[in-house]
Amino acid sequence: MTLRDGRIPPSAGTEHLLEYALVGDKVLPEVLVGIEDSVITHVTTELVCTESGTGPDGRSDPVERVAGLTLPALANCHSHAFHRALRGRTQTDRGTFWTWREQMYAVAARLTPDSYYELARQTYAEMVATGIGAVGEFHYLHHQPDGTPYDDPNAMGRALLAAADDAGIRIRLLDTCYLAAGIGAAPEGAQVRFSDGDATRWADRVAAFDDDRVGVAIHSVRAVPRKALGVVAEVAAGRPLHVHLSEQVAENEACVAAYGLTPTQLLAEEGVLGPDTTLVHATHLTATDISLIGDARAHVCFCPTTERDLADGIGPSRALHDTGARLTLGSDSHAVIDLFEEMRGVEMHERLHTQQRGHWSAAELLAAATTTGHASLGFADAGRIAVGQHADLRVLGLESWRLRGTSATPESVVFAATGADVVGELR
Ligand SMILES: [Zn+2]
Fold it and tell me: How much distance in Å is there from the Cα of 120 to the middle of ligand 1?
């Protein structure tokens, strides 16, 4: 095997000859990738000949030929692992986000660290199998059913970390501050499990975690009083900081009534918006909100399959992008776990909303699901097939009914593939 200029490609660790691979924003044929100690050591894209079963320069170490289209593993930036228990059970009867939330609270009320671990482990295993390599777990189920902390106050969070380890997925555990049922209202029902009482006690519990995979989150402006918002932003101190934002019109109305500000304006005034911040949903925004988010270079995490399942609405994804915001994706409630569906969902929702096609390119949506998504979780070393990157790749089979005959292109990946087309992984 030689390069076009006659050089021999370097070799170390395990080598794989990929039939097709996403390199940058293009799908290229015949890409040689070396992996050593979970790091990509070389990427060679100018091969002129291949000898299956033989290493470069006639060495005896084999090159594994990988059929299909290889991608960096995807980043699922918004997850509530326990919502997976609701799949197929909340699609009956009429209702709204708020009636769905009552069903969700019923699950939240009965989980223990052991059952939470088991549910999360299976949820994360499904993510791994469908192409996902990193998850942002938005975790607020902290305490016992009556609100008393467990002996280890972080027992539930540690159950999630263990579940991620055992499923083989990277996790950013976004430890969530949740203090109120609504603006000025004490937690009630299952919500007592979510609350630490005040922001200082929340911060003390997070400090006791002592695990570098922990980031932080503000549940929403509904659940965190104004004076506590800045406390969370301060604790974040450069770590990923995630916030549910304007998923529901009722949240906007309550915020304007209480503070005379939209949720976005309130977060801006309290120092929450910035490049390390991810705003989840960002559905019902004003033009001013969009400018504030773009100017802050914040991430916006869209979760189209959940947003349509819960009848949330359609957020202004392209307008946010065009003002400087950076798009990421999440499967959120896990009504389905399929980041390919989330990718195309962003574009499809824009089409239905505007009666125009072509708002987002396949390459842009792939960037949202890979490099930008990982960056928003604090994993800047992942999401690309490039030297020095964390080696976690997924292989799409091109012989499935869905992909057969589509040609190996970014458009095929985004607009035709599903998680079920993931047939292998390379680490
Ligand atoms: Zn959420």
Answer: 15
